[in-house]
User: Which sequence fits this backbone?
């Protein structure tokens, strides 16, 4: 059955298609109340479904907020999404969500899709990549966001700014003339809810050093993933300040499975530390990786905090049921999402996110002498 057209509604109401459009698509130029009521009655009787894009054109607003995350199954992103949804609801917007697996190529496609749907604003949450192989996709993503902003959209980034093409500043297009420089200086730019990953990882490293740990291993994501790299850098910085040797870094996927893979490889070093009468402290750069490490070592007969200590980062909500209680860095993830959405939709200043070190059982003093319990 063919969809009812606007022309059919206009004919049934005895008005022009332009008048019917002004009534049904929400234009500021509205006809008299009696005409408007006649058009709405005709539309209801015929079962007419308004065209959302036509409404957006008439109102200069689609009422849509786009959210781009790496993985909605990850509690880090689902918590941010909950905050974005809360703010969108309060401000009368509908949330559109897409998950990209974290590649700049997929993020560009998501921005392009939201642009074509005339989303009023976009929030993009997740790490950026500085890997050479992502350079072209980073440049394409930046161009797509600039096109969206130039057409009146609002974009808020959570975590990091976009990676600028080589030879340019973070927000400027390649320079070549005074006109180009002037245009770049006044070009719209994304807003940023920054997360002080390096600073907070440094705080965690200092806190764990103060707890008496002197031997550390870091389980990190792939090199070039900015969130992971900054957390590694901050933690290593703390060890240097304490006069401790740099931690060995084991890299794997930036998720629970990556942590599990890394944990299985750490069995021999954990056992060597136990035999030497020491306890190694493992820093996994996110909580999901830490959970994977614990699961892998538990299968090898090694348990935290008796045989080794472990800390994560983010304080995701699933830690409420995790044993042992995981030392971590707490980020107010829902509030970060709310802050980003409000900045995108109202222009509020998106102040940097705060965080704090949370010491829990996983890095507590040994309850008894280390044992392999294998």
Assistant:
């Amino acid at each position: 059955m063919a969809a009812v057209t606007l022309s059919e509604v206009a004919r049934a109401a005895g008005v022009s298609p332009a008048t019917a459009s002004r009534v049904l698509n929400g234009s500021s130029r509205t006809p008299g109340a009696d005409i408007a009521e006649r058009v709405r009655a005709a539309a209801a009787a015929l079962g007419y479904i308004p065209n959302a894009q036509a409404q957006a054109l008439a109102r200069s607003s689609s009422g849509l907020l786009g959210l781009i995350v790496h993985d909605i199954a990850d509690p880090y992103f689902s918590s941010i999404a909950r905050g974005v949804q809360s703010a969108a609801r309060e401000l009368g917007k509908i949330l559109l969500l897409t998950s990209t697996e974290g590649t700049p190529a997929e993020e560009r496609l998501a921005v392009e899709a939201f642009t074509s749907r005339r989303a009023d604003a976009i929030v993009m949450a997740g790490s950026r990549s500085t890997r050479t192989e992502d350079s072209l996709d980073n440049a394409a993503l930046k161009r797509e966001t600039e096109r969206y902003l130039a057409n009146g959209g609002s974009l808020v980034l959570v975590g990091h700014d976009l990676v600028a093409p080589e030879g340019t500043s973070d927000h400027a297009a390649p320079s070549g003339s005074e006109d180009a420089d002037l245009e770049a200086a006044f070009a719209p730019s994304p807003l940023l809810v920054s997360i002080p990953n390096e600073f907070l990882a440094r705080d965690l490293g200092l806190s764990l050093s103060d707890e008496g740990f002197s031997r550390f291993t870091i389980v990190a994501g792939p090199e070039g993933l900015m969130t992971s790299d900054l957390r590694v850098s901050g933690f290593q910085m703390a060890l240097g300040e304490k006069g401790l040797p740099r931690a060995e870094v084991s890299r794997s996927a930036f998720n629970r499975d990556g942590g599990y893979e890394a944990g299985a490889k750490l069995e021999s070093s954990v056992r060597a530390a136990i035999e030497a009468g020491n306890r190694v402290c493992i820093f996994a750069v996110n909580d999901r990786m830490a959970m994977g490490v614990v699961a892998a070592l538990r299968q090898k007969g090694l348990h935290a905090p008796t045989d080794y200590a472990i800390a994560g980062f983010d304080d995701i909500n699933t830690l409420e049921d995790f044993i042992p209680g995981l030392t971590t860095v707490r980020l107010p993830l829902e509030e970060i999402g709310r802050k980003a959405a409000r900045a995108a939709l109202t222009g509020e200043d998106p102040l940097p996110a705060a965080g704090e070190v949370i010491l829990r059982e996983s890095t507590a003093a040994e309850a008894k002498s280390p044992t392999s319990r294998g």
Notes: The CA atoms of residues 155 and 190 lie 5 Å apart. The first helix runs from residue 6 to 13. The chain has three domains: 6-59, 64-194, 197-330+356-363.
